[in-house]
Amino acid sequence: MKPLILFLAFVTVGAINEPALSHSGAPDHQHDDADCPASSGQPELKCTEAMEICIERKRLQLEESGAVGILFQPDRDSSSRIRGVALLKIVQGSAADRGGLRAGDVVVEWNGHRVADDSFSSFGEHHSSMKKGQRTRYLVRRSDSTLEIDLVAGPRSKDNIAVSLGKYVFDNYGCSAYKAFWDEHNLQEKLEVNRIRPSPGGR
Fold first, then answer.
1. Pairing mode, strands 82-90 and 70-76
2. What whole-number distance in Å separates Cα of residue 124 and Cα of residue 96?
3. What is the pTM of this model?
C-alpha cells in the first residue's frame, strides 16, 4: 500500500476525490516500509540547530496553536467551481462539536470572506495558523437552511501535535527521518481514529 497524504484543520486526521484538510493544517500520512509520501507542500525553512532541538521547538510552537476540530475539502458545483467548504468530519469534543457544526455542513463564508476558487486556500491557511482562543464566525449551509456559528479555537490534542510534527520532520529532514519518527511515535494508531470518510453527496 502506498502512503497517502491528506491535508488536515486538526493535525491528526480514504477514498475521496481530492485532498482533504483538517482543523490543524497537518497532513494525514499513511506509511509502509517501502515508500514515503510525496512532498506535502512548500517546506519550512530548515532549523540550523540539532534536529532534536528543532523538533522540540516546533512541538512547543504547536502547543501554543489552536484548532476547531474539522476535516474538510472543497465543495464544488457542476462546473467544478468551488462554492464552499464541505465538512467531512467533526472531532468529538472539539470546539466545532460543541459549537454545533456537523459532518455534511458546507461553510460558505468565514469572518465575512466568501468561499470561492480564489479564497479556499486562505480558509486552509486561516485554520492552520489558528491560536488558542481565536474566534471565527462561519456561515454554514445545512440542507435548505443557512446558519451562523461562532467558534473559539481550543488547544490541539497530543495526537494532533504528534502528526503535525511528523509533517515537520518529513518537510525538513526527509524520508528516512520521517519513517523513524512515524514508527517511534506510532502515528498510524493516532491516525486510525481520525480516518476520513467520503463526503456526503447531494449538498
1. antiparallel
2. 15
3. 0.67
